[in-house]
Amino acid sequence: MTALDAASQVAPASVASGSAAGPVALDLTALERAERGERLSAGELESLYHLPLPEVAAVAHDLRMQRRDPDVVSFLIDRNINYTNVCNVGCNFCAFYRTKRQPDSYTLDYEQISHKIRELEAVGGTRILLQGGVNPELGLDYYTGMLRHVKAHHPTIQIDAFSPEEVLFMEKTFGLSLDELLDTLIEAGLDGLPGAGGEILEDDVRKKAAPARIRSDDWFRIIDAAQRKGLYTIATMVIGFGETYAQRVSHLLKIRAQQDKALREYGGNGFFGFALWTLQTEHTRLHGKAPGATAHEYLQQLAVARIALDNLHNLQASWPAQGFKVGQAALYYGANDLGSTMLEENVVSAAAGHDRHRATVRELIRISVDAGFKPAIRNSRFEILNYPDVEAFLSRSAENPEGQRGVGA
Ligand code: SF4
């Protein structure tokens, strides 16, 4: 029995789609093609939003089980270090940034960054995300010095640093071509670029949410150069700005096209993963103005992404934005990965309106096991580092509720 057959037993293809105008026969052609592993067009992908979610989810989960180890759910132990909160971009959806005159603005010195990394190393972490605001006070020496300092003092830590927005600022400010800039950063220790700032890569959406935000062409230009140079990258997506289904599909197809190019031309060095989350607007200028997205919309979008991205196989569940319970459910809507523990995260959490923005290893293990999967700790390139001792972690909780010591030992 195929996933579609199984789903159809729950919601047969002849049932009404819920239209107020009365029963409408469902066209499952696109889903049937997806289930056969065929690539869907923009119109076919848009049609998925109008089908019952259980049917779309069943196919998405089936594809996930085919494309990644069906027994395993992976995650990473890392820390997001925001080296400065000073930013002159001023996105309407951001509660993190400050102007330099605000009393709680900051820029970390290298020893403060090292202190945070030592805490990460103590719990077996292997990667930092170094991201900041776009701080016009910082010179190129600050960035290269930071990378050199981290590599010198923490040689086993992978550094994925600087969103395309920050790279664009450096390119415009320091008089270097993009190639020269990336070469300089790589020589100083850069291992990858987080794909932050993707949101919806349609400029009509971006202009409304953040008029000064990096445009989609520049985002792809910078990601393309990074992939060409062998750097790690992931693709990101945020829904809830009030974007249309067509705009969401366009975003996904641009990512799919970039992935095709990278796999073809850059020796397979494309996006290593895809992270989707929902817009968080607490304490931002968009609060009450953007519709946001419900759990149903999030899970639907995740399932559509799994079907659309037939060349990008690691999809993350967003427990930081959706909470642990929806994050766990996402493992049956196309996700095969729980992202990372995020020992520290400040940007999404500043606008989240809840405090669920970090997880212990024990919590991610429990989410995986209870959902029927074997947890695996990976590196940022989605290579499995080890399979944690589930019994030991789950029994350790009373004496060590953080459950993080001894990972990887
Ligand atoms: S999202 Fe990033 S670029 Fe936009 S205001 Fe916040 S820190 Fe600045």
From TrEMBL:
Its EC number is 1.21.98.1. It catalyses: dehypoxanthine futalosine + S-adenosyl-L-methionine = cyclic dehypoxanthinylfutalosinate + 5'-deoxyadenosine + L-methionine + H(+). It is an enzyme of class 1 (oxidoreductase). InterPro entries: Aldolase_TIM, CofH/MnqC-like_C, Cyclic_DHFL_synthase_mqnC, F420, FO_synthase_su2, rSAM, rSAM_sf. Pathway: Quinol/quinone metabolism; menaquinone biosynthesis. (3R)-3-methyl-D-ornithine binds at residues 163, 318, 340. S-adenosyl-L-methionine binds at residues 93, 199. It comes from the Bacteria. GO terms for molecular function: 4 iron, 4 sulfur cluster binding; 7,8-didemethyl-8-hydroxy-5-deazariboflavin synthase activity; iron ion binding; oxidoreductase activity, acting on X-H and Y-H to form an X-Y bond; transferase activity, transferring alkyl or aryl (other than methyl) groups. The keyword Iron-sulfur applies. Keywords: 4Fe-4S, Iron, Iron-sulfur, Menaquinone biosynthesis, Metal-binding, Oxidoreductase, S-adenosyl-L-methionine. It holds the Pfam family CofH_C. One of its GO terms (biological process) is menaquinone biosynthetic process. Radical SAM enzyme that catalyzes the cyclization of dehypoxanthine futalosine (DHFL) into cyclic dehypoxanthine futalosine (CDHFL), a step in the biosynthesis of menaquinone (MK, vitamin K2). HAMAP family: MqnC (MF_00992). Belongs to the radical SAM superfamily. MqnC family. This is Cyclic dehypoxanthine futalosine synthase.
